[in-house]
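We were asked to recover a plausible sequence for a given structure. The inputs and outputs are reproduced exactly as logged, with field labels preserved.

PROBLEM: sequence recovery
POSITIONS: 177
GIVEN STRUCTURE:
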């Protein structure tokens, strides 16, 4: 299973698949990034390496993951990853590592902390999506305004779906107690 994860993570990070995904902002900043985050989370689930022992480590992990995600959402970071191959590969590696850190951080945290982080992260996604969706100027110079708006629309749908899922999890998951 681990070899399959590594294979698919490398597959979407190298030409020609990487070039295809990088040709559209939705492919690069949404599908590729979230696939790598999910792969990192799956790797953390399937292995026991680098466990976080206490809540301060877990909280720090959530901060690190949020920083990684926010950094690669900045238009200049997206542009630089399109200009320089090594920065694009750093993006892929950090998203994979971020997913790994995210799952390690969430395991063992109190349910309330997971709910609060879910609401904060989905709100951050939604706010980022709104900027990309409705801004009338090009933020990423390597993509068109239409690409930027499509990315914002897809991210907005995902952010609202994640926000709704977290709220439903809080309502129905916590009400059983």
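RECOVERED SEQUENCE:
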């Amino acid at each position: 299973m681990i070899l399959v994860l590594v294979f698919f993570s490398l597959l979407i990070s190298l030409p020609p698949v990487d070039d295809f995904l990088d040709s559209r902002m939705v492919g690069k900043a949404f599908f590729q990034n979230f696939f790598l985050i999910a792969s990192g989370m799956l790797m953390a689930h399937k292995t026991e390496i680098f466990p976080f022992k206490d809540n301060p480590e877990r909280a720090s992990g959530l901060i690190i993951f949020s920083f990684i995600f926010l950094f690669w959402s900045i238009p200049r970071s997206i542009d630089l990853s399109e200009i320089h191959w090594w920065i694009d590969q750093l993006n892929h590696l950090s998203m994979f590592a971020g997913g790994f850190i995210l799952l390690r951080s969430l395991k063992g945290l109190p349910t309330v902390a997971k709910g609060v982080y879910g609401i904060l992260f989905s709100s951050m996604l939604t706010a980022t999506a709104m900027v990309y969706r409705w801004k009338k100027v090009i933020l990423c110079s390597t993509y068109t305004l239409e690409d930027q708006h499509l990315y914002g629309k897809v991210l907005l749908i995902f952010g609202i779906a994640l926000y709704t899922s977290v709220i439903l999890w809080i309502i129905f998951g916590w009400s059983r107690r």
